Amino acid sequence: MTFAQAQKPSSSVEYQALQHRLARDGTRGALTAFLSQMLLPAGLSLRIGIQDSKGVAGEVFLADALIGRRGQKSEEVFLGPHSWDGSYTDLRPNWHGVKVRVQSAHDGDDLVMLVTQLQEAPTGHPVSIVVFSAAYSWNRPGSISRLSDRIDANGPQLKVSIYPIVYEVPGVNIAVIGPYFAASLNAPAGISTGRQRSLAETTRIVERQRAAYMQSITAAGHCAIFDAIETTIACDTIYEPERRRVVSPVSRVWGDNWGGYVLFDWDTFFAAILAAVGNKDLAYANTVEILRHTAPSGFVPNFARAGDWKSFDRSEPLVGAITVFGLYRR
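The structure assignment produced for this chain is given below.
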């Protein structure tokens, strides 16, 4: 299959509609970053970075965060609730001893993001800084402009104004190219789209969506199990621009190491089975997307990765038919 062929969407009108629903269904994380939210279909990325002023030798700024990076000073990320549609997300990165809680929530068509430091800096250490920035991903058209009170993102599909929730830290050296807001982590900080919001209003929005998530989990029964499944699969689901699709790769850190994304045969079928407990569209999307990588000889490859690389010499255990039949019955 050539790259041009890989760009072609499915011929099924129903499947195109399914992918459209998933892509429009709230926010999706960028390919490899947990500390960002992607506004689709425009490809506008709202990013969070952490500056640790006591760091040295290239360890001053955390531009994104992943689960599973190895290294003595790599970040750790602890997942909190993450709804299927991104209406509420909650995670807790720990980097250089800087421990924060990052929450996001929808308020109608708007998005708010709130960052709270969970542990004060030791006495004598500089206060860490949180940085909020915006950019268009994947070479999508659009411009980002910094005004006195906001950042404006202007593109053919979406025009968004982004406002800081607290006062900024002036005159700091930040490793971000483009407009940004910077705020001290000695108090909660955040951003909101659409209009200016106070910290109190933002906190109420976040708490309302957190409560709605917990209510939906309680209604499903088996709270801990359903919470774990929804959080894990929803957090691992991305919008993948090569084939213009929503899919759940094997993990974000694997995608980072393999050039953007990587799907494995039975891992993707297992992700479909798990998604089926609460998101029918995503369950079918994962099933269809791994099947679309079928090798010329007719088997589902062991792996398929960015750039349309795949294994042509091996598959994995035959769980695809069991998955499809199970989804059909459900």
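Interim note for the steering committee: Confidence is low (pLDDT under 50) at residues 1-9. The CA atoms of residues 129 and 184 lie 5 Å apart.
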